[in-house]
C-alpha cells in the first residue's frame, strides 16, 4: 500500500506548487519571495481584487512601514516581538522600502518616521505588488480555500470551493478577523486549528475605546493634539503613556494615541482601566499653577467661562465647569483656592473611565491568532505539519500604529515565501 501511494505522490510532484492563501500584503509578499527563488506559485484570493485591506490602510494613503531600526521596530511590537526578531532582521524596514521603490513605488518619510507612497495612494502599492507577481508568473485563482489536505504529516493539497490544488507547500496569509468586509473572516484560524494548531482567542487591537463618561458624548468631534495620554489598570499601574493626538466620540475615545493604548488593554473580563489626559504636558504643575494665577489675576473681573477658553478648547469648557462644580458666570476673583487646585488637577490629569473596546470588526488589526510557540521563527513553518507556513496577521502578533503592522506583514511574508521555496526544492529533489 505504501509503494503505490508514494508512486502516486511522485507523479503529482511536477504539478505541485506553493499555494499562498490570501492576497493581502503578507500573501503577496510571500508569493513574490517564493517566485523570486524560482518556485511555481499559485495564490488563492476570493475577493474581486488583491490587497483589499491594504488599499484602505492609512486612510487610503498606505503607511507601508516605519523608517527605523530593528530595535525600534521591536519596541513598537507589544505582543510576541521576540518571535519576530529573525524575520525582521532578515527583512528590515530599509529592505521593505528598497523593495517597494524597486518595483516602482517612490516613497517619502513623514512625522514619526511613517513611510508613505509619494503619490499618497494605496492602490499604487497593491498595483505594483500585483504587477511584480504577474512578471514572476504567479497565478492568481479567484477562489476561497476551504481546507488543507495532509498526507503523512505533510501538506499535499488545498481544497478550494471550485477545485483542489496540489501543493508542495502552503502559506496561510488570510489575516485576522478585523475589517471582515475586506475578506478577513477567520478562515485561516479554522484551517490552522483543523491541523492541530492552537488559536489564541482573537480580539481587537488598535481599536477605539468605549466609555460611559457623559463628557465623551458632550465633546464628540473634539480632537486633542500634543497631549500626554496614560492608561492605568485597577491597581493604579500605568500600562501605557505616550504623547500625541486623540479624539472624543459619541461612544468614547479614538485617534492615534487611543489606538496605540488599546494594544495594552487586555482581558476586559479580568481588568478595568481608566485614561488620564495631561492637557498641558509641556508645563510642570508648578509652572502651570503660576500661569493659572497670572490668568486669574489679569482677568479677575471676567467670567470663568472666558478664562477657561484661554486654556481649553471651547467644547471642554462646559465639562470643566461641571467637574469643578462652578458656574460659567463665576468671576475669576471669586474662584476659591480649592477650586483652583481642582482646576490644576483636571488640566494635568483629566480622567476618562473606560468600559471596553469597540468590536473586533472595527479594529485595525487583530490581536490573537496562531500560537507563535507552534511556529518556527526563522521561516514561519508549522512545527506540527510539514510544508505549512504562516504570514502576517494570522499569527498572534500585533504592533502599534505607524507602519509597524505592515512591516510585520512584509517580513513574515518574505520569510515564509523563501522558506517555502526551499521546502519545494527539497521535495522535488
Say which CATH homologous superfamily of the largest domain is assigned.
FAD/NAD(P)-binding domain
Helix/strand-derived class? alpha+beta
Shape: elongated
Which percent band covers the strand fraction?
15-25%
The share of residues in helices is: 25-40%
Kindly report the CATH topology of the largest domain. FAD/NAD(P)-binding domain
Low-confidence stretches: 1-14
Rg of Cα set = 26 Å
Textual characterization of the structure:
The protein is an alpha+beta fold. It folds into 2 domains: 2-205 and 362-428, FAD/NAD(P)-binding domain, CATH 3.50.50.60; 208-357, no CATH class. Helices cover 35% and strands 24% of the residues. The protein has 14 helices and 21 strands. The protein has helices at 2-12, 25-36, 70-75, 81-90, 93-102, 122-136, 187-194, 214-218, 256-262, 285-298, 304-309, 317-324, 337-348, 404-428; strands at residues 17-21, 41-44, 65-66, 107-110, 114-117, 139-141, 145-151, 154-160, 164-172, 199-205, 209-210, 223-233, 238-248, 252-254, 273-278, 350-354, 356-357, 365-370, 375-376, 381-382, 388-390. Strands 1, 2, 6, 7, 8, 9 and 21 form a 7-stranded mixed β-sheet that branches. The protein has a 7-stranded antiparallel β-sheet with strand order 16-15-12-13-14-11-17. Helix 2 links the parallel strand 1 and strand 2. It is elongated and about 85 Å long. 44% of the residues are buried. The model is unreliable at 1-14 (pLDDT under 50).
